[in-house]
Amino acid sequence: xxxxxxxxxxxxxxxxxxxxxxxxxxxxxxxxxxxxxxxxxxxxxxxxxxxxxxxxxxxxxxxxxxxxxxxxxxxxxxxxxxxxxxxxxxxxxxxxxxxxxxxxxxxxxxxxxxxxxxxxxxxxxxxxxxxxxxxxxxxx
Length: 140
Known about the structure:
The model has no long low-confidence stretch (mean pLDDT about 95). The protein is globular, with a radius of gyration of 15 Å. Strands 1, 2, 3, 4, 5, 6 and 7 form a seven-stranded mixed sheet that branches. Helices cover about 30% and strands about 25% of the residues. It has about 140 residues and is an alpha/beta fold. It has helices at about 15-30, 35-45, 50-65, 90-95; strands at about 5-10, 30-35, 70-75, 100-110, 115-120, 125-130, 135-140. It contains four helices and seven strands, in the order βαβααβαββββ.
């Protein structure tokens, strides 16, 4: 059994990640969480100093509120906000040890070099991961 139960639907904006995520959720009767909306609502009442300290725990609490063995995560851009000081892939991997996470990942995966990216180089939210663990499904 894999160590992480993480499935990343990788593709640029407009590649069909959200419709696919919703169709999978309907077919498998799982919850879909709009992460940006839910996380930002919980972070609003916190000071800018508290947000990076509490973001991980808030995310854990949000996932705990959704029953079932699998949850779909859409709109995850807030995880990449430099102000939150998170490592989005490592965080998703850790959370996927307890349940299966199917995540819409706005970026690219270069299978030839095993490199997963988020955003473009030079962008403040840019991330590059070599040899990421988990199942990656690339949408073009």
